[in-house]
Design goal:
2 copies of one chain form a homodimer.
Chain A (H helix, E strand, L loop, with lengths): L8 H5 L2 H9 L5 E2 L12 H14 L13 H14 L9 E4 L1 H13 L5 E5 L4 H9 L3 E5 L1 E2 L2 E2 L1 H11 L3 E4 L13 H13 L3 E5 L21 H5 L7 E6 L11 E4 L2 H15 L4 H13 L4 H22 L18 E5 L6 H11 L1 E2 L1 E2 L11 E5 L5 H21 L1
Parallel strand pairs in A: 1-12, 3-4, 3-7, 7-8, 8-9
Antiparallel strand pairs in A: 2-10, 5-6, 9-10, 11-14, 13-14
Helix pairs in contact in A: 3-11, 5-6, 5-10, 12-14, 13-14
Chain lengths: 405, 405
């Protein structure tokens, strides 16, 4: 039969994201395209032990759980993890989701009607852009610099577009790696409070602060949520995930904020898939709260290793092929956001790179409009040898294209 | 701040489903309301062993996976499980989802625009109704009897409403437990093919066929998908789940059908949550394809036990309290759908029952409109003692209400 898809299903079909992901799964492909953590650093043996213990102990671990997520893990998040970050959340103010992407999708579904204006950092997360487009939002970019969004531009966009929401990732914006300054954080928060704009603060990358792995980041870079310091009725929904800090396959992210927002999102969650895996949530809770695993120490380990890989990538970008390229140096996150010479067609470059066996993410996927001369490179997943080989292949591709233009 | 939710978020807020679920999670409550399998029968030790083996063996088990789901599990589904049911699926024709509910939600999002007409059995799955309402569908009920949907009524509803889709569960409809006859299956399928109506066939309960646990059900009750026998471009999307047959906490369901439909749903899946837990999918695959676990034997065990519990519930329904109630006797599924005396307010009855410590599902949650004199009782989760106590409390509640009216 001829299938008659919904109007907005077509926004998904034109997505390049899925096809890049599919191609990078081929065995021999080196992927600098994705958001993958280093597999070598997963707490394998502790998780294997945990899984065996948790499943043997209680048949309830295999039963349906709460739509909001496993209670003890929510309590641990509220009482331990978030509290230590200055993020005060009331009981009932956390929803566990299938990664932070689901938190974003659920919020979009319960908060955005077709035609509603939403502000985003530009460039921004490809996943957020997809969710907003599927919801029929009018997406308005806000300009930023190396210190974060520009308050003047934000103000003028608010006044012109009357947006319902601002999506931002102040700590290591995906893809640019920008870490907003404290002043900027305060200015942006004040503007949104003054104009009643809901801020969706995505802190999925915030712990990956590799130059300061021995220093508590709370003092210098508090989240917008912590700055507002209202546990209920506030202007910030705080989103995070264990995908980058423990393991993605556990598919556990969260949204934290006002009970009113969270309860509506929980109802949407129940409608969407009843609940995420309570088995995974129990494994995480046991790992974090009972086993010998120490998440803070583990994050330090990740940051030391990611810093090393980052420095290697920077060295490799000093080669002649990249002479006309430019980039800022982030102090965390998972990506380098590289500006290529004017006029370079990044989609043609991608085809060439894929032919050589390496993948990257083209800038337009992270941009409301444009982004055509940018590419996003991931430095956390490939190990030393893979990074060397992958960057050699990338250099070849860039050289070929620079010669042509 | 005052949150300004999307228009259809309000369809979720008025949902009684979430509040019943929340209440039944209280420790002392006996729940006859939910769709829970018997915990005592979960393959605990095999799964504990499996988890330890799978996680220790390969760090890839904790990494991001494919949006479509873990390849070897999809292959097992296509090449073993579905094939044996006469369900022929092409490679690329299966999407793994977070339970069958997510398959339903994703399909609704990519196929239904606000105002589109969708036909449903009446009564039908509360989860399906929620997903359709959230999507803004116009939901049209089709009448049925103990053999399945009535072809004449289906034809007239198709001609009058020009629906895009029919949602049906021919094998043990939730909540009524109807098992469609072969003739009816053929008639309904032919009508939908003739009028190009997509059928969403939910077979989540199809294996729970407790009177015929020693007989292969394929011969007598083939799925609509198997009857059409087209692996690509067909009129049926076939939906199922491991939640009822292995364990719900693994949150693994699937949609199988035409590659075109599946690829669009996979794109929506990626937008919604990137992917379900590939760890859980690997655990399932190892359990089903490598370990000593035999799913077919396990299902026979479930059906023997569920049949015993079913017979006990039937016995308990012979008590005087239920004299004016009526019900059909299903030969499978998880529920009894009981019609109470005219004029009984099932929502008031629910409040009374909850006060006594027992929960059931009120009929209106399963109905497009009406359903007010029905209740749904689950017999698979409570063990013998719990069933006795729960049904005693239910009898008390019903007696009180019958005396009043």
């Amino acid at each position: 039969m001829k299938y008659d898809f919904s109007a907005r299903a077509h926004t998904l079909l034109s997505s390049q994201l899925l096809s890049i992901r599919t191609q990078t799964r081929r065995g021999s492909m080196i992927s600098l395209a994705e958001e993958l953590p280093a597999e070598e650093l997963f707490p394998l043996s502790l998780l294997a032990e945990t899984a065996s213990t948790v499943i043997s102990a209680d048949a309830g671990a295999l039963q349906y759980g709460d739509p909001e997520g496993y209670g003890p893990l929510r309590e641990w998040l509220i009482g331990d993890w978030l509290k230590a970050k200055g993020v005060a959340v009331a009981e009932g103010g956390v929803l566990l989701t299938t990664g932070s992407q689901q938190a974003i999708d659920l919020l979009s579904r319960v908060y955005i009607d077709p035609g509603d204006c939403v502000l985003v950092e530009n460039p921004t997360s490809p996943g957020m852009l997809q969710a907003l487009r599927m919801q029929g939002a009018v997406i308005i970019p806000v300009q930023g610099d190396r210190d974060g969004l520009l308050p003047d531009h934000l103000r003028s966009q608010i006044l012109q577009h009357r947006p319902k929401m601002l999506y931002a990732a102040p700590s290591f914006t995906n893809p640019s790696g920008v870490l907003w300054s404290l002043t900027r954080r305060k200015e942006i928060l004040e503007l949104c409070i003054a104009h009643d704009v809901l801020i969706v603060e995505d802190d999925s990358y915030g712990d990956l602060h590799f130059e300061r792995y021995n220093e508590h980041p709370l003092g210098k870079y508090p989240s917008l949520y912590a700055l507002e310091n209202v546990s209920d009725g506030g202007h910030v929904l705080y989103i995070g995930s264990f995908s980058k800090t423990v393991a993605p396959a556990l598919r556990t992210g969260w949204a934290a904020g006002s009970r009113e927002l969270i309860s509506v999102m929980a109802a949407a969650k129940q409608m969407a898939d009843w609940q995420s895996s309570s088995l995974n949530q129990r494994l995480l809770h046991h790992l974090l709260d009972v086993s010998a695993f120490d998440l803070r120490e583990h994050i330090k380990l990740l940051n030391r290793e990611y810093h090393t890989r980052f420095k290697l990538m920077i060295e490799l970008l000093k080669r002649p092929a990249w002479k006309q390229s430019s980039y800022e140096l982030p102090v965390g996150g998972m990506f380098l956001w590289v500006s290529l010479p004017d006029g370079m067609d990044v989609n043609a470059l991608l085809r060439c790179a894929l032919g050589k066996g390496v993948a990257f993410l083209p800038g337009p996927l992270c941009s409301v409009n444009g982004g055509g001369q940018y590419i996003r490179l991931n430095f956390t997943h490939p190990g030393r040898d893979e990074l060397l080989l992958g960057m050699n292949l990338m250099s070849e591709a860039v050289t070929e294209f620079t010669a042509r233009s």
